Amino acid sequence: MENIKLIVDSSSNMETNQAANLEVVPLTISFGRQDYIDNEQLNLKDFLTNMNSNRIAGKTTCPSIQTWLNALEGSEKAIIVTMTSGMSGTFSSALQAKAIYEEKHPDSQIVVVDSKSAGPELAIVIHGIEEMLQSEIRFVDLEEEIARFRMHTHLLFVLQSLHNLSLNGRVSPAVAKIAGLLKINLIGTASKEGKLEPLAKARGVKKAIREIIKYMEKDKYQGGEVIIDHCENEKDANTIKEKILANYPNAQVSIRPMHGLCSFYAEEGGIMVGFHE
């Protein structure tokens, strides 16, 4: 298939790759009277240090319509994959950019995909699209094929700290404090509606990892691609990888550090597991 540009937002923890015609569009994270652009220039160590000492609710800002238009510039055909519309205006701003771009360039075709997720599941979807582009599929059939593929991709996560979620009113400060003191990990998923949904609580990391493997099997995991993203927690990411490979020796499992946006929500010790069944 002819050259098609792939565009994804920075919640995917991916990096721009010109050889693969892939561009990552950054979100912005704000706290402590400072804005952090979630791109390759972000100093993650400083970002995490400042975030851990911050005591006021922060916020994230989706890419502007103009940022998406800049990424689309020069494309005849493009596929945009965004983080869930259930938590961000990113999908909405990408849709508006698509409408403006197609009006200016009547021969262009842009597909915008709401991943209903974040983090490594977006990367799994992008990899699925890259495979589709290697096949004989027509561009007009891609949207339907991507939707079909997405029915078999999932996200699970483990949170060791609820500090930011409590600052932002998602959980009460008392619950966050008790969870920290008792070393309670929150295991969750991205629901079909694209909301972050708690599944279980586990005391200690070992139990949390067992829960992750259990929920992967519940989601019909049978050896498909897995991407494990971590925030300063390569050790536990490796343990999850080893457990998956023990059961599925041929599975393709990769580990990556989270970028700014996912680190903001998952915090230090956090892990996100994206996978295709």
From TrEMBL:
Per the record, a Pfam family? Answer: DegV
Extract the SUPFAM superfamilies matched here.
Answer: DAK1/DegV-like
Which segments cross the bilayer?
Answer: none
Gene3D superfamilies from the UniProt entry: 3.30.1180.10, degv family protein (2.20.28.50), Dihydroxyacetone kinase, domain 1 (3.40.50.10440)
**Keyword Membrane applies:** no
What exactly does this protein do?
May bind long-chain fatty acids, such as palmitate, and may play a role in lipid transport or fatty acid metabolism.
Q: Which PANTHER family match?
A: DEGV DOMAIN-CONTAINING PROTEIN DR_1986-RELATED (PTHR33434), FATTY ACID-BINDING PROTEIN TM_1468 (PTHR33434:SF2)
The protein here is known as: DegV family protein
Origin species:
Lactobacillus kefiranofaciens
